[in-house]
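Note to self: the last two entries modelled the partners one at a time, which told us nothing about the interface. This time every component goes in together.
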Amino acid sequence: MLSLIRAVISRDLRLAMRRQADIVSAMFFFIIVVSLFPLGIGPEPELLRKLAPGVLWVAALLATMLSLPRLFADDHRDGTLEQLALTPQPLGLIVLGKVIAHWLVSGLPLALLAPVLGIQFDLSSDALWVLTISLLIGTPALSGIGAIGAALTLGVRGGGVLLSLLVLPLYIPVLIFGAGAVDATVTGLGPQAHLSLLGALTLGGVFFAPWATAAALRIALE
Amino acid sequence: MLEASNLECVRGERRLFAGVGFRLEGGEMLYLQGRNGSGKTSLLRMLCGLTPPTYGDICWRGESIRKLSEEFRSELCYLGHHNAIKEELTPLENLRASARLAEESLDEDSALDALEQVGLRGREDLACRYLSQGQKRRVALARLVHERRALWILDEPYVALDPAAVDLVAGLIGAHLQRGGLAVLTTHQTVEVPAGTVRELRLG
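The predicted structure of the combined assembly is written out below.
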């Protein structure tokens, strides 16, 4: 079971390394969107500090969305998805592997970049820490929930827009608690409550999403 | 061993076929024939369990494949219309990755040996996107060299192959039948398989 998940992760990571443009463009999207805000709003530290959690989290959501349409589309096009669906192991485990691989190339680099970008918003070092941790805890949920949307829109024309409409509303709780954790730190309350709820969302998302995704994939393959 | 009875397939509003049935024992091969659009690929996908039949039942060793699901899939090797290879990976990586995903152990030497048999020696480290259509098909077919699962379902295995490669694949299928395996395949070419009993089924 674990060896299968490992096999999927290593295959997807190897593919991602051969197609680095995808990862790099999502990262640059994140950097540019976040950097536009201080330029547009002007140098008012008070206001920027207030905006920072929301801006960084919304930009992270959108950057994650960028790579979602290709999560299953490539495998679907070249027939590997059929082969994956025909392995003797449950398809949910394979999806779990793909979700983990997606997080490693999208969520993880976003979380590591975020503190550098947070400096532009004059965030304190405590807030930068909490920002990084909240992204580390929250982004796996984004990959998990996004996988359901990617599977449901597989093979649909104009699937990219539909995917955003489907997935972004489901991201709202993650956004609220993720940005809320940083906000709570800035205002002096502790981030623990928000981070715990965020962790619960991620655990739930990563545990249940692969099975829903697998069901959607089977329907798409019919 | 593989038995299908009274299968019906409806695609959209059209009924592609109905009342299709056959029985296949170890060492036998079923040749699916029919014009384009008669539902050959749909039937193969039904036999794999990818598409549920609109009506009818498919049994493997006497039990419905719907019930067996994972047990059945562990005895099935399906080669579809698409090659199921990754263009970014090399033939060697493709072969080993698909073996790992199928949870089979394939060491580098046997993978290289399989590639040599399908005539891709010297190309094993070249990304598949630089290969020709026929060579890509050979990468996909290299899986069959060390494949020991009981049921092979092959959708147009000879397409894009040169005559030498067609003979090679026919030889692989023959050896599989000799080991007591089963094969179901579609093709528009008439190819002699060196061993086993051949049955025919015409759709449409």
